[in-house]
Structures are given as C-alpha cells and as structure tokens.
Design a protein that fits this description.
heterodimer; A: alpha+beta; Beta-Lactamase; 4 domains; 5-stranded antiparallel sheet; 14 helices; 44% helix; B: alpha/beta; Rossmann fold; 5-stranded parallel sheet; 38% helix; 20% strand
Chain lengths: 478, 137
C-alpha cells in the first residue's frame, strides 16, 4: 500500500475553505490563498483595503494595524463584495506573524464567509420577534374579547382566564368551573366542556351564571378543544357570551306579544258585550220587551266601563315607576285602602280589620304605589270572601309586623282560597280567575311595585279556608 | 227576527262564565224561537244536562281556572249523561291562538263527537242562529 505523501503548508494554505491573506505593515498583501484570489482577484502588489474593500483608504479601526501594534489576536465582522458582485459578510480574524526575534513582521488575516449564517441568524431573530408579537396579539385578543374565556383541564380546573372573566367572575386560578359559576359541588349535566373532552368537538348551550356583583348573567357557552402535539384534547377553552340584554329583550318582546294578544282578546270580549247590549236594546224595542231593553242598556254601560278599567290596568302594567320615598304611617294608609274598599265590603258582608304593630308603623316607601298594591290585594280578598258565601263571618285583615329589620304586611282573608291550578298561576301575566272582568294584570302589577321597592311578595292559600299574601319590605326600600 | 212555531220544543243550554254573554245569547236564541237554559261553568252545565236534557249546548271554551278543551272533554266524558248532544263552541280566542283551542286539535279528539261549529266572539246573530238550526237538523 502506497504511503500518504506529506501535506505541505502550501497545500493546507490553499485548501482551507476560508480566505487567508498575509499583510505587511503597509497593509500590502504579501500572500493570499487561492480561494481569496478566486473571489477577490489576485493581489498584484495591492493593499488589503484595495482588494477586500474596493477602497482607496485603509479602514477605520483597522484590526491588522492594531495587531501590528499590540500583537493581540482580533476578530471582527466585515462586509465586502466579491469579484462576481456578491455582497458577503466575513468573520475576520487577525493574528501576528513573528520573526525569530519575536518582532511582528506580518499579520495574517483569516476570513470566513458567514453570509449564510448571518442570514439564518437574522431570520431566526425575525421569527422570534414575530412569534413574540403573535403571542402578544393573541394574548391581547384573549384578554380583550368581549366574552368570558377560560381554559380548563379534564378535572374542570380553571387554568387560565381572560381579563373580562377576572373582572366579572373573579381571578381564581385552580377553582372548578362548576363551583365558581354555579355554586355546585359536582359538574353540571350536561356540560359542554365534558362533551368536548369526550368527542373533541365544539359544543354550546345556554346557561345562567352569577357574577361577582351578584348579578345573574344569561350566557351562551361554547366549548372548543385545545389539542396537544399528539392531537389529544389536552384542554378545553370555554367562551361565554353575556346575552342577558338579548334575553331581557326577548322576554320583554314575548311579554308585549302576549299583552297585545291579550288586549285584542279583551277588546273582542268588550265588543261582544257592546254588540250584545245594542242587539238587546234594538230587538227588545221592536218587541216592546222592556226588561231586555233595560238589560241591554246596562250591558252597554258596563262594557264602556270595562274599556276604562282595561286601559288603566294595561297602562299601569306598562308604566315605568320610579318610587318617591316618603315616611308612610301604615295605620293611616290601611285606613285609606279600606275606605276605598268599604262599599264593596259592606255589600258583600265582609268585615275589614286593621292591625299595626307599634314597631312596624312607619314604612319608607312611595305611598301612591303601596296603596295601589294593597288596594288590589284587599279587593281580591273581598271578592274571595264574597265567593265563599255567607256560611261564616268573612274578614279581610291588613296587618303590619316588624320582620328581619324591615316590615312585613299581611293581607289575609278567610274566603274561598285557591286551588292548586290557580296557585300555580297567581303571578303570571294575564292570568285571571275573573273571566272577562279581570285583566290578569292586578297581581302582576302588585309584584312589580313591591319589587321596585326592593321587597318580596308570596302567599299561602287553602281552598275553603282563605288566603294570606305576605309582603316583606327590606329595612332600606330604596 | 221572529219567533217561529215548533221551535219551542228545542231546548238550548248556554254555558258561559260571563253574564253579559249568557244574557245576549239567551236573547238571540229566545227571539230565534228556542227555549233557553244557562250555566256559568261546566259543572253546572253537567247538572243542567242531567236535569233538563237540552237539545244543543253552546259552550264558551275559556273559563276561569281551566282551559276550555278540558271543559269540553269533561262535558263529553262524564258518564251518565248523553255525550252526543251537539255543541257549538263560542270562543273569545282566535281559533289558532292556542294549540289547545285549535279546532283541528279538538277535531282530533276521536273518542267523542267533535263540536258542531265554532264561533269567534263577536259574531253575527243570524249566522249563529243558522248554525244552531243546522246542528239541530
């Protein structure tokens, strides 16, 4: 086997994949390797700045001159242009070449083409910046979307939330969603998050949650999968849009629709009464049937009154009331309410009883509206007594008592009472047990008035034994 | 409108919770030549059917506390009374306003004879009398 020949300095000098140049103190090129000649042209007695920089002047801060000065190895980057017009970046290293005496007689410049490396570095930096910017945008989007966004793991633990979520529902990483939203101890059924973990698909449903402020919020919840690099659903994002206003509008529209239908129905009832009355007056006159004429005329008058009542009830129902609070002496107020009801009570043989606890005598509320509400309740109570008949003495009682720092008013009767069917619908819009004579709005308006004072109303009723409506006004009614 | 001979034998039960409507229909029917009795609810109507055996019933299908269809069904399903007496429904609602008041729904009640006619208040007296006459024919 033939031996490997000695590789001489000259071979190495010309074979290395970088540019090598040896300069003297005048920066004249003493030697260059082949690759340098190939890319920058043969030196031909020229200076380094003439060959490598295409310049007639030495570079500022010339590293070669500094190395001549202090003998230190230096490294710097330099941009240049090759003979074929390519702009390239060189990493230049200068090192001294010393004579046997130690004196620096020349400097060797070894330059590596780092153009591609620089390009890659810049690209990398650009990408890093873009990613940072994208992340910032995403984070900003996440924070600023006008819905509650949370990210949950499979145990329903909230890992991350957006700004609106934190502000409205609380900043509670680690909480379980069902605890936070629903005050539950176990996941909801159905749960869109669980469904997404199961099938990897988005799901949505409507729900009602409680905000930090205590406000009930209607939301449309949409869940979306967040997959890991294996495609497995690792987390689920839940986006809840507050649709309370939309829901309120829907309810209001439904209510208005119902009210219009009901009003139309009532008007038809009144028209029937008027038409019947006119028929009886006309036909009765033709036949000289006085009782029919009189009854017909009574019907006309009565139905004209019905128009007035129905209009007032509907107006009262639709009205936006802002209570004007005053100190009300309940003893006096009960008297006023009873005065209005006295003739109906006397006609029906119903006794009116008022009872005011000295500790619950003064109520701060709007006397107009409270008296309107009590009037409806007392009128209903008298009617319930009349309906029950006179088998027993009938009484309607208005009583005030202190309760939970506020005042409680009971309106009780020992009249007919309500069966289950009626009890279920008491506060329903347009529900009436009075047939054509009722608008079905009386108790709805009462409930609205009490609500506008921050109070509550409920009732107990037993058929044949009577009914008690209980109004609770809080300590502060405004 | 004049009373016609031979109609007095036909007895009509008017069922309505509104006294105005009862008096109105009573007048229309009496002047149309019929004998009229009345009831203000379905329970009273059942008693009247037992006691008076009317030839036709006019029924308001909305009454306090219960929907009309229940009243109609009760009238039809009560045992011990005739369940084939022609019934003319007089309603304050448009027939399509409520599923339970939809005549098609009522017609679907196959087990009992359906109402002979529907009248929406307010109605024309002549048309009403003509429907009564048809139902009795």
């Amino acid at each position: 086997m033939e031996g490997i020949p000695d590789i001489g300095f000259e071979d190495l000098f010309n074979a290395v994949p970088c540019y090598i140049a040896v300069l003297d103190r005048d920066l004249s090129l003493i030697r260059t390797n082949h690759i340098a000649d190939e890319h920058f042209g043969p030196p031909g007695g020229r200076k380094c700045f003439e060959v490598f920089k295409k310049s007639s002047e030495p570079c500022e801060d010339c590293a070669a001159l500094s190395t001549f000065e202090d003998g230190l190895i230096r490294q710097h980057e330099s941009e240049t242009i090759t003979v074929d017009g390519r702009n390239i970046v060189l990493l230049v290293r200068t090192r001294p070449i010393r004579a046997a005496s130690g004196r620096i007689v020349a400097v060797m410049e070894v330059s590596t083409d780092v153009t591609e490396l620089k390009r890659l570095q810049e690209e990398l930096e650009r990408r890093r910046r873009r990613r940072r910017r994208d992340y910032d945008h995403t984070r900003q989007l996440f924070d600023e979307v006008p819905c509650y966004v949370s990210v949950m793991d499979e145990s329903y633990t909230i890992l991350e939330t957006n700004r609106l979520f934190k502000e409205s529902l609380g900043d509670v990483p680690g909480a379980k969603c069902y605890e936070l939203f629903k005050s539950r101890t176990a996941p909801c059924v159905p749960c869109p998050v669980a469904e997404t973990f199961t099938d990897g698909l988005p799901h949505s449903h409507e729900s009602r949650i409680r905000a930090l402020s205590g406000r009930e919020v209607d939301v449309v919840v949409r869940s979306a999968p967040m997959r890991d690099s294996d495609g497995r659903v690792a987390r689920v994002m839940e986006m809840s849009v507050d649709v309370t206003e939309v829901k309120n509008l829907q309810r209001e529209l439904a209510r208005l629709g119902k009210m219009s239908a009901h009003a139309a129905h009532n008007i038809k009832g009144i028209l029937t009464g008027l038409k019947g009355g006119i028929f009886m007056v006309n036909e009765g006159r033709k036949r000289n049937d006085t009782p029919v004429v009189e009854r017909g005329w009574e019907m006309v008058q009565h139905n004209v009154e019905r128009i007035a009542t129905q209009s007032l009830d509907i107006l009262s129902f639709a009205k936006k009331r802002v209570p004007e609070h005053k100190q009300i002496d309940l003893d006096q107020l009960f008297g006023v309410v009873f005065d209005g009801a006295r003739s109906a009570a006397e006609q029906g043989g119903v006794q009116l009883v008022s009872s005011v606890d000295p500790d619950a005598r003064v109520l701060e509320a709007d006397p107009r509206y409270v008296s309107q509400a009590l009037t409806v309740l007392v009128d209903n109570a008298i009617e319930a007594c009349v309906e029950a008949g006179d088998a027993a003495p009938r009484t309607v009682t208005l009583a005030s008592k202190p309760a939970d720092g506020g005042i409680r008013i009971d309106v009780s009767d020992n009249g007919a009472g309500m069966d289950e069917d009626v009890r279920e619908h008491v506060f329903e819009d347009f529900y009436s047990t009075k047939g054509s004579m009722g608008t079905g709005l009386g108790l709805v308006v009462v409930q609205k008035i009490i609500g506008e004072h921050g109070g509550t109303i409920d009732f107990t009723s037993t058929p044949g034994r009577g009914t008690t409506f209980t109004i609770r006004f809080p300590e502060k009614t405004r | 409108m004049s009373e016609r001979e031979g109609k007095m034998t036909k007895k009509i039960l008017v069922v309505d919770d509104e006294k105005d409507v009862v008096d109105y229909l009573t007048t229309v029917l009496k002047y149309g030549g019929y004998e009229v009795i009345s009831a203000s609810n379905v329970d009273e109507a059942i008693e009247q059917v037992k006691a008076e055996s009317p030839d036709l019933i006019t029924l308001d299908i909305i009454m306090p506390g219960k929907t009309g269809i229940k009243g109609f069904e009760k009238l039809r399903r009560t045992s011990g009374i005739r369940n084939d007496i022609p019934v003319i429904v007089v309603t304050g609602y448009q027939q399509t306003e409520h599923h339970q008041m939809n005549p098609e729904f009522l017609m679907e009640v196959k087990t009992v004879p359906p109402p002979a006619a529907f009248f929406e208040k307010p109605f024309e007296e002549k048309e009403f009398l003509a429907a009564v006459e048809r139902a009795l024919a």
